[in-house]
Amino acid sequence: MYKIKISLLLLTIFLTGCWSSTTGYEGIRFPKTSASKMVFQETDIPDNCSAFAHLLMNSKMQSTGKELRDALMQEAGDKGANLILVGMSREMLEEELEGNRFDYYGPEYAYDFNKTWLGWKFGFDDWNEGNNLIGLDAATWENNEISFKSSLLIQAVFLRCGQDL
After folding, report:
1. What is the mean pLDDT of residues 20-36?
2. pTM confidence score
3. Distances (CA, A) of 128 to 62, 116, 137, 144
């Protein structure tokens, strides 16, 4: 009887882990920072920067430009990025997210961005499910009056720049 109870307990614990919908970030981290900056051109990345996270941000519906910026900057700072490269963005008409989601696609190790960057070559399966391209520029990210009805899918790379690599 005792072995059956232990077996049932272990089985319950195992199955609970299988159905869990929350996954933690298991990628590369640096010490947290609150001084992240954002750039939109690959040519704006300084020579002393290492890329350590490729991701797609799925925004919640009805986000303003400023809310998008704040969420991405918070996520970046929590992972230790002091620079964020933002790529293209697409509408996700089929998504109805009530919270932001960040999907990570590596890399396995931090690399020198200016020597090794090969372009936006991650998350294609998710990226291809998107709809229209949406233009996000520096002015949009500062604007609390621009609101996006749909969820957006936003390409980003987190970088750590400077001597504290």
Report:
1. 76
2. 0.82
3. 22, 24, 22, 28
Residue type present at position 117: W
Q: What pLDDT score does 34 carry?
A: 87
pLDDT tens string 91-136: 988 778 888 999 999 999 999 999 999 999 999 888 988 889 988 8
Token pair in block for residue 21:
């919908």
With b for 16 or more beta-carbon neighbours within 10 A and e for fewer, the 12-33 pattern comes to eeeeeeeeeeeeeeebbebeeb
